[in-house]
Amino acid sequence: MGKKSRADAVRLEKEAERRIAGEDCRHFLSDRFPGRNEQIDNLLCILGEPCDAFPPLLVYGSPATGKTSILRESLSFLGRPHAYVSCRSCHCPRLVFESILNQLVGHVRSRANNYASARRCEKLTDFVTYLVEFCGRKELVSTNCGNLNKTVYLIFDNVELIRGWSGGNVLISSLLKLADLTRLPNLGLIFVSSAGPDTLQLGSASREPLPLHFKDYSNEELYQILTKRQPHSELYSFFLKSSLAPFSRASRKVTELAESLHPLFLKYCEPFLNGKVILNDQGKRELYKYMEQYIQPAMGQSFSIADPDKGVNTKQEWKSMIYSRPLAKTGLGFHLSLCSRYLLLAIYIASRNPSTLDDALFGSGEGAKTKRKRRSSMSAMDRDAAMMQEKQLKGPSVCPLERLLAIFQCLAVDRNVSCEKLTDFKLDSSGEDCRQLKDVTSNVQMELVTLTSVNLVLKSSSSPLEGLPRFRANVDTDFIHEVARSICFPLDKYLLNA
Amino acid sequence: MVGTTIFTERISVTREQVNEAVALLRRKLCGGSNQPLHQLSLLPDAESNRKQLHDLLSHTIVNAYNNSALLLGPRGCGKTLVLERVLADLQSAYPERFSIVRLSGLLHADEYCALKEIARQLCVENELFFSKAASFSENLQFLTAMLKECALSDKALVFALEEFDLFAQRPKQCLLYNLLDAMQSTTSQIAVVGISARLDADQLLEKRVRSRFSHRKFLFLPPSVEDATRLLQDVLTLPSDSQYAKAFNMHTKKLFEKESLKCLISKFTEVDLSPQSVLDLGFRALCNINRDTGLLTEDNFKKASLILRPKPKLETLKGLSVLELYLLVVMNRLEGQNREVYNFNTIFHEYERLCGLHNTCDKYSRQVSQRAFEHLLDRELINYAERFTTVEYTPVKLLISSQELKDGLHSNSVCPTILHQWFSHDNFK
C-alpha cells in the first residue's frame, strides 16, 4: 500500500515537472518572440512529446518572420536531438549531407582533422545508409521510457533554393520521403522555406508535408518587436508612434525597418541630447513636428541600402553599388578616359534612338527638318508619342557594332572644336590629343572591350544574319547625364523625347 | 444511457495516460511503411488486392513460379502498406524461405547504384562480407551467382521496386531488363513487384522488357468518403484496456456520428480523397487535442482542416505593405490593357502617373518602389519573364490572377480605398 502510494507520488511529481517544461517553453518563446503566439502553439503541439511520431513538416512564410529562430530555439529548449542545415550556406547536396552527418555524430571540422567531414558522402544512397547507421546510436536516441526511441529532427532551411540545383526536384522529393527510404520510425523532418507549398514545386513524387504558415507581422506586432530591442524604450516608443506608420506602408520587413529607422532615431535624439527639448508633453509635440520633415527623405535614402543578407551576388548589383554612392555627391567617383566617355555616350544614344533617326541627327541636317514639317493630326501624334515612350520604358535596345562606331565617329567630328577646351581632362593613357578620336582604330575597340568588361556596356548575342556583335548601354539616366556634363556634351540635343 | 453518464462526469485521467494514448495514435496515423502494421485495418479494395498479392508471392516461394506484378494507384492509397503487410505475413509464414531486396527509384534508378545496393542487401541478409569497392561487373557476377545459389537451396528472392516509373525512365531500362530476364530462366526463383503512382507505368516499358513482364496489375483507387471516414474512425480507436480508453473510444464514436463532422470530412476530401490525406486530417486534429481532458472534439477537426488547406497566395497578399499592393494593382491594370511586356520602368511610370492624377499620399521615390518591387519578386508574386541584366528593364509577369488580387485587397487590413477603385475600374484614369 505504502509502496504504491509512493510510486504514485513519484509519478505525479514527474508529470508536474513535464507539464511545467511544456508551459515553460511556451512562455520562454512567446516572451522572446512577440506576436508569434499562434505559431508557437501550433509548432509545440505538432512537436508533441519526445518519442512521438512525426510526419514531414513544412514551415513557410516570408523572410524575417522568425521561422528558423523559433524552430531552433524550441528544439534546443526542449532538449530534442536535432541537426540543422541551411541550403544557402551548404550549396550542394554533398555539403548538406555531410553537415547533417557531422552534427549527428558530434563531429567538428577542425585543423586537427584537416577540416574533413565525419564521412564522405556525395550520393543520396550513401546518405541514407549512413543516416540509418547514425540515427540508431544509443546516446542520441535512448530514453527512459520503454523501448521507444527519441525522435531525431532534421531541419532543412531555405529549401526553396534546392529548386535551382541540378536534379533539385528529385532531391526535394527524396528528402520528403526520407523517413520511408531509411525505414526509421524516429526521424522527424522539418523543412523551412520562404516559398509556400504552391510555389515550392514539391512535385508529384512525394506526399504532402504538413503546412505551418508564419504570417507577416501586423503593425502592432512590429511595434512590439522594435521596442523590445531598444534600451531607451520610452523615447523610442514615442519615436515609433510617429515614424513607424509611414515606414511600414512602404515595407513590412522587420530587419529592413530596424535598419532604416536607426539613423532616424539618432536624428530624433539630437535635440533631446542637446538639451533643447525636455521630455514632457510639450517637448514631445515639438519633437514630433521636428521629425516630420525628416521622415520622407529618410525613407528615400534608407531603403536603397543594399540588403545585407542578400549580399552582392550579381554583377548588376555591383554596378548599382559602384555608382549609387558617389552619385550622391557630384562627379562619377571613378575615372573614365575621354574616349570611353564619348563611346559610352555614343552607345547610349544608339540604344536609345531608333536607327531611322540617325540620318536626321548626324546627316546633313535636312532630314530632320523635312520630317518636322510633315503635318499630322493631333491624335496620331499622341499615339506616336505614346509609342515612343513605351519603347523607351522598355529599356535600351541593342545596336550593331557598325552603327555604334559610325555614331561615335560623328560625335567625335562634331565635337572636334570644343575638345580644345577640355584639355584639363586626362585623355587616353597614351596622352594623345583628341584628334585621335576621329579615326576608329583598334584603340576604340579596346575601350569598348573595357567598358564591356566593367559591365557599363552589355554585349548581347550577335545577330544571326550578319554575325556582328551587338551592344546595349547598361547605365541609367542619371549616370549618363553626369558623364555628359563632365565633358560639356549637350546630350539632350541628341535624344529623342529627352 | 451509461455512455452519457460517463460523458457528463469528468473522467479522472492522468496526463501520462493521455500522452501514451496520443503517442500510440500518432504512430498509427503517421503510417508509412515502417510502422507496426498489424494495427491498421485495410479498406475492402486493398484487402482483396492483398489476398491476391499474397497468393502470387506465396506461389513463388512455395512452388518456384517466377512472377512479376505492378501495384498502381495515386499517392497515399496504401500500395506500400499492402506490400509490406504481405511481406510481413509471408515472413512469419515461411521464415528463411525467401529474402527481400528493396529498391527505390529515387535512390537507385542508376544501374550502378542499384546493383551495389542489391549486393549489399543480399550480403547483409546472408551474413556475407560486402565490399564497397566492388566494381559493377563483380557485383553483377555476384548477383547471378546468388540467384543460382538461392534457387538451388530453394530460397526465393523478392524484389520490391518503389517508384517503378523512375526505373522505367532510365535509358535502356537495364536493371528492369536484367531482373525480368533472370525471371525467365529456370535456374532462378524470384518475384519482382513494382510500385508506382503513374497508372501508365507499364506503358513506359520497352518492348523487350514488356514482353518479359507478366502483366499483372493491381489497381489502388481512392475509397468513397464513407469508407475513408470509417478508416479514420478505426485508426482513432484505442485498444480498450482501461477506463480512459473506453471513454475515449465512446467519445470518438459519438463524434463521428455527428452530421457536422461528416460534412467537414467530405468537404475536406473534395480536394484529395486518398486515405493518406484523411489520416493527415486526423493527425492534425490529434495534435490540437487538449492533453488535460484527453478527448477529441469537433473544434480540433475544424482547426485542423483550416490549417491543412492553406491559401498561400491569399496569406501572402494579406501581409503586403501598401506600396507593394500599389505596384501589384498597377501591374494588373497593365495586363488589363493588353500590354504583353512590361518592366519595372513601365510599372513605375504608370504608378507615378496615377498618383499624380489622384493626389494620393502614398507617393514614393523610385528607389523605395524598387525595393518594394524586389520584395514582390522574393515572395514569388511576380516573376521575370526572361533573363535580362538590369532589374528595371527586365520584363516581368504577374503570378496571381486578378480574382486572387481582388480577394487579397479585401483581406488586407491596410489597403487604402483608392486602390479598390484603381483595381475595379480599368478605364479609371
Structure description:
- The complex is a heterodimer of chains A (498) and B (429).
- Chain A is α/β, with parallel strands linked by helices.
- Chain A folds into 3 domains: 19-213, Rossmann fold (3-Layer(aba) Sandwich), CATH 3.40.50; 219-302; 328-370 and 384-494, Arc Repressor Mutant, subunit A.
- Chain A contains 21 helices and 8 strands.
- In chain A, helix 9 packs across helix 10 (233-250), helix 10 (233-250) packs across helix 11 (254-273) and helix 14 (338-352) packs across helix 18.
- Residues 305-330, 367-371 and 417-438 of chain A have low confidence and may be disordered.
- By secondary structure, chain B is an alpha/beta fold.
- Chain B has 3 domains: 2-11 and 226-308, no CATH class; 44-219, P-loop containing nucleotide triphosphate hydrolases (Rossmann fold), CATH 3.40.50; 314-424, Arc Repressor Mutant, subunit A, CATH 1.10.10.
- Chain B contains 21 helices and 7 strands.
- Chain B starts with a helix and ends in a 5-residue tail after the last helix.
- The relative contact order of chain B is 0.10.
- Classes of the chains: A alpha/beta (498), B alpha/beta (429).
- At the A-B interface, helix 1, helix 2, helix 5, helix 7 and helix 8 of A face helix 2, helix 5, helix 6, helix 14 and helix 16 of B.
Structural descriptors:
heterodimer, A: about 500 residues, alpha/beta, Rossmann fold, Arc Repressor Mutant, subunit A, 3 domains, five-stranded parallel beta sheet, three-stranded antiparallel beta sheet, 21 helices, about 50% helix, B: about 425 residues, two-stranded antiparallel sheet, about 55% helix, disordered N terminus
